[in-house]
Write a structure and sequence with these properties.
Elements: H1 5-24, H2 29-83, H3 88-134, H4 148-197, H5 199-210, E1 217-221, E2 224-225, H6 237-241, E3 246-247, E4 254-256, H7 258-268
Parallel strand pairs: 1-4
Antiparallel strand pairs: 1-2, 3-4
Helix pairs in contact: 1-4, 1-7, 2-3, 2-4, 4-5
The structure holds zinc ion.
Keywords: Coiled coil
Organism: Prosthecochloris ethylica
Protein name: C4-type zinc ribbon domain-containing protein
């Protein structure tokens, strides 16, 4: 068996590719889950903000109604006192107090109307949203237009979806766990060998991987680097065919003959 330096690094790439293939079985589920969780957080925040506003309105309304009730009872007391007033001065003084309480009531009423109006507007917006949904005009719906019940439904749907995707991912992870750990073991052993026999190639390999190039070692394909499709100079072809390697001038990948990958696969069994 040929154990040249380049064969060692090709075998490492072969094993890394196998792990990558297993990860790709996850079919983008981790990214989908992440996106769904962002949607969930956004929707939950919207619902929470609406509930907070509703609670504030309820609290203010309660306070204002208390004020009104309190003022009314005071007015009643003052009016009772007026019937017992001994002179005009006393009567007028009570009238002024009644007037003051009436103004308080009027002010509270205005604030109550403001709240009612705000709520009315919000509900009209949601009604508009409901119509747009019925007409499938989703792109015209603003955040405020999304009806409360539909927002809740969306949140619940999103939670179901993320739960399902998580289960799917979990089962893939469980199914492939044995294979992955066996591969990880092989990779670790292979790295030890490469470290010893071809340290410079390994550091080149790791450098590319750290730059997010997963396929650091690639095949020569149609006389070009199959990583970036840049043509490999003709005078290097012979070297590659003979089992050597070429560093792509354009992307820096290690270009080898495809035969080397076949050999690595055979060796792997
Ligand atoms: Zn290249």
């Amino acid at each position: 068996m040929d154990h040249t330096k380049i064969n060692l690094i090709v075998r490492l790439q072969h094993l890394d590719n196998k792990i990558q293939n297993i990860v790709s079985l996850q079919k983008g589920l981790p990214e989908e889950i992440e996106a769904l969780e962002e949607d969930i957080a956004f929707t939950a925040k919207q619902i929470e903000a609406r509930k907070k506003i509703a609670a504030e309105h309820a609290k203010t309304r309660e306070r204002l109604n208390d004020t009104i009730e309190h003022c009314r009872s005071k007015i009643k007391t003052f009016k009772d006192k007026q019937t017992l007033a001994r002179n005009n001065k006393e009567y007028d003084a009570l009238s002024k107090q009644i007037e003051y309480e009436e103004k308080e009531i009027a002010q509270a009423d205005i604030q109550l109307q403001d709240i009612a109006q705000t709520e009315q507007k919000a509900s009209e917006m949601q009604e508009k949203g409901r119509q747009l949904i019925a007409e499938n005009r989703y792109d015209e719906i603003s955040e405020d237009m999304m009806p409360d019940d539909i927002l809740e439904q969306q949140l619940s749907d999103l939670r179901d979806q993320v739960e399902q995707k998580k289960e799917e991912l979990e089962s893939i992870i469980v199914e492939t766990a044995g294979e992955v750990s066996a591969l990880e073991q092989k990779i670790s052993e292979q790295r030890t060998v490469v470290e010893k026999e071809a340290k410079r190639l390994l550091s080149k390999y790791d450098h590319l991987k750290n730059g997010n190039i997963q396929n650091a070692v690639v095949k020569l394909h149609r006389q070009a680097c199959s990583g970036c499709n840049t043509r490999v100079p003709t005078n290097r072809h012979t070297l590659i065919v003979q089992g050597g390697f070429y560093l792509c001038e354009s992307c820096g990948r290690i270009v080898v003959h495809e035969r080397l990958f076949d050999e690595a696969a055979e060796q792997d069994g």
